[in-house]
Design a protein that fits this description.
By secondary structure, this protein is an alpha/beta fold. About 50% of the residues lie in helices and about 10% in strands. The chain is globular. The mean pLDDT is about 85.
């Protein structure tokens, strides 16, 4: 079954370019488009979508608020992949915090965009982890009261190994890299990541990264807290 993709951007030409790239893929189908966040929500109410490519800076309703409302729908909601013009963008940071599964720059090579869509669809995001980490490094210290006591209490429920895996996920390592670092099989690492998501009530790896920063498990700069 093809991955059902929705394009949300106020620039028609940009949507057209993305649609042409995706239409050439046998495993993807553009099933909907919208010019802003409010229209996106209206279209999603009547259209089944797997992944939303979401611009963040749009009129009427921006991508952050639209992402928040989409992700608040819980299980079964489409995954949101943020598209931004700027490498370090406070809008993209806000979208990650409300549940986006990752973000990419709009000028990303087509092959990387397609890979990101497939990763997000499968639930295996962080997308562009080094960029995501730099984004968090920049903006997390600016937030008042960043550390969350409830988050710390939830993390305390993790086993020592799960906490170790969480720290490496937060530093941007893939399952394969974590397996090599901890001398485990990749399947075992995947199991640990799944248990971390379940215990912490998180949607995907991006939210693991955000919680690790908010709880102080990882400090700005990517080091352990």
């Amino acid at each position: 079954m093809a991955i059902r993709v929705m394009l949300v951007d106020d620039q028609v030409l940009l949507r057209t370019g993305f649609r042409m790239v995706l239409a050439a893929q046998p495993d993807m189908e553009v099933v909907a488009e919208a010019g802003d966040g409010a229209e996106a929500l209206e279209v999603l109410a009547a259209t089944k979508v797997d992944v939303v490519l979401m611009d963040v800076r749009m009129p009427r309703m921006d991508g952050v608020e639209s992402t928040r409302r989409i992700c608040a729908q819980g299980e079964g909601a489409p995954k949101v992949l943020i598209l931004t013009t700027f490498d370090l963008d406070e809008y993209a940071f806000s979208a990650l915090k409300v549940g986006a599964s990752g973000f990419m720059l709009k000028d990303v090579p087509p092959a990387e965009l397609l890979g990101a869509i497939r990763s997000v669809y499968s639930g295996d995001a962080v997308v562009a982890p080094s960029t995501t980490r730099r984004l968090l490094d920049r903006f997390t210290p600016m937030l008042p009261g960043t550390a969350r006591e409830p988050a710390n209490a939830e993390i305390d429920r993790l086993t020592g190994r799960e906490r170790e895996v969480m720290l490496l996920v937060a530093q941007g390592l893939s399952n394969g890299e974590i397996a090599a670092r901890l001398v485990l099989s990749e399947a075992t690492v995947k199991t640990h990541v799944g248990r971390i998501l379940t215990k912490l009530g998180l949607r995907d790896r991006v939210q693991v990264v955000v919680m690790a920063y908010e709880s102080g498990l990882v400090r700005a700069g990517g080091g352990a807290g």
